[in-house]
Amino acid sequence: MSNIWSEALEGLEPRLGAQTFDLWLRPIALEKVEADCLHLTAPNRFMKEWFENHYLGVVLDEIRARTERSFEVEIAIAEGETEQGAAADTQAEPSTTSVEVVDAQQAASAEPAASLSAQVRPTAFLVEPPPTKKPVRSHEPPKLSSRYHFKSFIHGASNDLAASAAWAVAQAPGERFNPLFIYGGVGLGKTHLLHAIGHHLQEHRPELRIALQSAERFMNEFITAVRSNSFDEFRRRYREDCDVLLIDDIQFISGRDRTMDEFFHVFNALYEAGKQIVVTADRVPGDMQGMEERLTSRLNWGLVADVKAPDLETRVAILQQKAEEDGVEISDEVLLHVAGLIRSNVRELEGALVRVSTFAALKGVPITVDFATSVLGNQTTAEQAAPLTIETIQKVVAAHFAIRIADLKGPRRHKGIARPRMIAMYLARELTSSSFPEIGLRFGGKDHSTVINACKRIRALQGLEPDLAANVQSLRRQLSSERPD
Ligand code: ADP
Ligand code: MG
């Protein structure tokens, strides 16, 4: 069935031209066809929207002409998966009452296993039917993004540890850095590294069965399995038929007790069997609110490595590579200029390049610095004007005083924590447009009067305690230069 897609695209290539085709159509992938609906994925929101607005109609016409059928289309965004599954089972975890729980241990471990068949895909390891009485399962390879290889990942100071550790894991899975925990902000290469490990292993260790999954999908599969009251397959898939488990965005399951519990057991089973586990998240294990301590402690067992916003040189190198990949002619001067404008997110950096090169191609003009500025104007002011958030303030304050963000939000009144908390509240009030109640809410649901008092105290104490004043001063400086470079 996926032929209809590739055939239609092939048919369109001569009409659209190779460059347009490569830039806009090739990255859109057909995931599956369900009844009359084509499920596509686009690498990012920009590509998705551009494709929808400019090419979807032509592609559908082409498909209709070839198949004499009309299709609807659902386009998901491949990374981050914010638009996927949102409508499905994402929200509600299975409540204990929805399953017959025999005993806690068994419920936690033996739980779900139903309709995940289509989703997790260990590599083709067993050619013969498995020697169980279970129905034959498909041992398909994991879904790996074709773009995310080690060779296309640019090393820089910002990601050196994470990239080297990922490489080491791909060389010798289960031997060093187990688990490997990669964390960092959005669009900084976590998913790229996870897929790169998958690609490398698939190529060099084809005997290994790899499960790569977003935590969200893991949870959805778990829920489906719970609902259909059949855990065996799920359990086998993740605990037994799995040599390498790659889980993206684990923060997604924090607070989802049953899923965390299940993941905990999967983790233990694989870890004890010496299987490699790699997990990504947007923050360190200890900062994931609602994540069970026994789980965060396990996630800390191996190596915890961060990816930060890349420095200017790395950004330029990323753009150079991207331009080369896309066959875009663009001077180093312009690349430097674009890299200077978009600083904190590689995905946006790539999007900026695509935007500039596409507009230039559409208008038939050369790509100059002025042209880039005119195209990216809005985007860059948006980034520059991106307001400081309470989360950022909490992160910086917690790091400054070497305490946990959870403590800043928690109830403890110990001076070593209460003071930083008051300072963070004060800075949140001074540096953001948030109201007192909102700040209270973001600090673990405290009353607005607590925030008002904190602000008053810190204002007064600055005149009395030079140390405290210096701390506040230094934090202000840090927060105003939060942006890299
Ligand atoms: P995250 O998972 O951290 O949100 P992704 O891995 O999805 O980020 O990366 C976003 C985009 O930026 C991807 O297209 C990825 O290929 C690219 N990218 C990020 N870091 C690098 C890097 N160091 N070298 C090359 N491309 C990168
Ligand atoms: Mg990601």
Describe this structure in words.
By secondary structure, this protein is α/β, with parallel strands linked by helices. The chain has four domains: 2-91, DnaA, N-terminal domain (GMP Synthetase, Chain A, domain 3, 2-Layer Sandwich); 121-126 and 142-307, P-loop containing nucleotide triphosphate hydrolases (Rossmann fold, 3-Layer(aba) Sandwich); 312-383, Helicase, Ruva Protein, domain 3, CATH 1.10.8; 390-482, Orthogonal Bundle (Chromosomal Replication Initiator Protein Dnaa, Chain: A). It contains 21 helices and eight strands. It has helices spanning 2-16, 18-25, 45-54, 56-67, 104-110, 160-171, 190-204, 215-227, 232-240, 257-272, 293-299, 312-326, 332-341, 346-363, 369-384, 390-400, 405-409, 415-431, 436-442, 448-464, 466-480, and strands at residues 29-34, 37-42, 72-77, 180-184, 210-214, 244-248, 276-281, 303-307. The strands form two sheets. A five-stranded parallel beta sheet has the order 5-6-7-4-8, sandwiched between helices. Strands 1-2-3 form a three-stranded mixed beta sheet. A hairpin with a 2-residue loop joins β1 (29-34) and β2. The two termini are 49 Å apart. Bound molecules: adenosine-5'-diphosphate and magnesium ion. Magnesium ion (MG) is lined by residues 79-80, 190-191, 248-249.
Rounded mean pLDDT is: 81
Structural class call reads: alpha/beta
Rg value = 25 Å
Low-confidence stretches: 81-92, 94-138
How far the N terminus sits from the C terminus, by CA atoms, comes to 49 Å
The biggest beta sheet reads:
5 strands, parallel
* Assigned CATH superfamily of the largest domain: P-loop containing nucleotide triphosphate hydrolases
Annotated CATH topology of the largest domain: Rossmann fold
Q: How many structural units, i.e. domains?
A: 4
Strand order of the main beta sheet, please? 5-6-7-4-8
Q: What is the second-level CATH architecture of the largest domain?
A: 3-Layer(aba) Sandwich
Number of strands: 8
From N to C, what is the helix and strand string? HHEEHHEHHEHEHHEHEHEHHHHHHHHHH
Q: Which ions and ligands are bound to the chains?
A: adenosine-5'-diphosphate, magnesium ion
CATH class value of the largest domain: Alpha Beta
State which percent range the strand residues make up. Answer: 5-15%
Outline type: globular
Assign a percent range to the helix content.
40-55%
Number of helices: 21
